[in-house]
Specification:
By secondary structure, the chain is mainly alpha-helical. It has a single domain, classed as MFS general substrate transporter like domains (Growth Hormone, Chain: A, Up-down Bundle), CATH 1.20.1250.20. It has a two-stranded antiparallel ribbon. The two termini are 26 Å apart. The N terminus is likely disordered. It is found in: Membrane. InterPro entries: MFS, MFS_trans_sf, NO3_transporter. Pfam families: MFS_1 (PF07690).
Length: 450
């Protein structure tokens, strides 16, 4: 690793000096730039999450406009962005230390124009094949991949004592992109805002049969915003002069705490992202067959909204209390909520629907606490730039959440006829991580108290 000033040809991109843990430097120069960088990158990260999860909002209406995909196929479409997000995060985790924040984050934002435009075109053509939708669903996951560049970048800009606050704000507000897309989609697809570049589709099934949907709006709405985000990132962001090559970054894999925190973050963010993607289809599949069935997106956005809000709030709290105690609270709360959810996944009427939603929201709430506390723990357990690498790695693995959760739900449902085993399994996984967190980070005399 080198912290020397990069060569002159890159002076417009790389900062000549960056020492956020020096109080004098922080007050004179660092604080203003760090906060400006945080707000600009958080705007783009929110859009990245929106593109990542727009598939989960679109697929619940595909069959209503003439497509004929099975429930299993729809879960595959929901899963593919998670597969891409996890895969591309494994690449993104190395980019910022090698190429800097400015180039990496700008190009990452521009790449999201591909799935945004692609989905807008595909949903208007009733002959679009399932294979094409699978490719487009995978490309939407590029938005999830960006996370592993944004978060390590932010960790470099702030002093260690403010890591929980800064990362909690960015990740929490960024996570709002999930609820944003699920909340806005029902409103966007009923308005002909982009009719000039694409007509609407007739609704052939569902509660709005006989009407017109502009399903392309759910994707095209983000195109101008992505262009703005890329422009802001390029003009306002500079790169921290911390460089590391592949060999230096791979050193994190020799530390057992990298693997422990990976499992814990899979519990928190893996469940959050996975259930955020699957929630709309779960509502439709479990309760959509009853008369006056609930509209999935009317309720599904509440989960990621609660989880995101809690993540912002508990990022601030974690800097005061430490992360380990809050991660334990998260694990216990998620385990209990998962067991409770299992009681309402084989409904015989709509009477149990409010309880299903409430217990699902419990999982989202406690996962939000854990998402904040784990990002407070990692900068304490590891020193920079290793902490940035671990944040990127754990985020990469947890981004497989939508793929893993959707595939497990689909597989379990086919094998047993319901999703109860999935939620019982989630509870067991949470208890396993509760033990890991307590033993290594939370108990008296723990190896790495955090």
């Amino acid at each position: 690793m080198t912290t020397s000033k990069p060569g002159a040809p890159r002076s417009s991109t790389w900062l000549p000096r960056w020492e956020p843990n020096d109080p004098a430097f922080w007050e004179q120069e660092g604080k203003a730039r760090a906060w400006r960088t945080l707000w600009v990158t958080t705007f783009s990260l929110t859009l990245a999450f929106a593109v990542w999860f727009m598939v989960s909002a679109i697929v619940v209406r595909l069959n209503d406009i003439g497509f004929n995909f099975s429930a299993n196929q729809l879960f595959w479409l929901t899963a593919m962005p998670g597969l891409a997000a996890g895969t591309t995060r494994l690449i993104h985790m190395f980019l910022v230390p090698m190429y800097g924040s400015r180039h990496t984050l700008t190009l990452g934002t521009l790449s999201l124009l591909i799935p945004a435009v692609g989905w807008g075109l595909a949903v208007q053509n009733p002959d679009t094949s399932f294979a094409t939708f699978m490719v487009l669903a995978f490309l939407a996951g590029l938005g999830g991949g960006n996370f592993s560049s944004f978060m390590p970048s932010t960790s470099l800009f702030f002093p260690k004592k403010m890591q929980g606050t800064a990362l909690g704000i960015q990740a929490g507000i960024g996570n709002f992109g999930v609820s944003l897309v699920q909340f806005l989609t029902p409103l966007l697809i009923t308005a002909g805002a982009f009719a000039v570049v694409g007509g609407g589709q007739a609704v052939t099934a569902g509660p709005q049969a006989g009407g017109t949907l502009y399903l392309q709006n759910a994707a095209w709405f983000y195109v101008p915003l992505l262009l703005i985000g890329a422009a802001l990132t390029w003009t306002q962001i500079r790169s921290v002069p911390i460089k590391a090559n592949f060999r230096e970054q791979f050193a994190i894999f020799g530390d057992k705490h990298t693997w422990i925190m990976t499992s814990i973050y899979m519990m928190t963010f893996g469940a959050f992202s996975g259930l955020s993607a699957a929630f709309p289809l779960l509502i439709k599949n479990l309760y959509g067959g009853f008369e006056n069935a609930p509209l999935p997106l009317k309720f599904a956005f509440l989960g990621p909204l609660i989880g995101s809000t809690i993540r912002v709030l508990f990022g601030l709290i974690a800097d005061k209390t430490g992360g380990a105690i809050l991660t334990s609270v998260s694990a216990v709360g998620m385990a209990v909520s998962a067991v409770l959810v299992a009681n309402y996944v084989t409904p015989t009427s709509l009477d149990t629907f409010p309880y299903f939603v409430a217990t699902m929201l419990g999982i989202f709430l406690f996962s939000g606490i854990g998402n904040a506390s784990t990002f407070r723990q990692m900068p304490v357990i590891f020193n920079p730039p290793q902490s940035a690498g671990v944040i990127g790695w754990t985020a990469a693995i947890a981004a497989f959440g939508p793929f893993i959760v959707s595939m497990l739900i689909s597989t379990v449902t086919v094998a047993t006829g319901n999703v109860k085993p999935f939620f019982y399994g989630l509870a067991v996984f949470c208890l396993f991580n509760l033990f890991l967190n307590w033993y290594f980070y939370g108990r008296k005399g723990a190896e790495k108290p955090s």
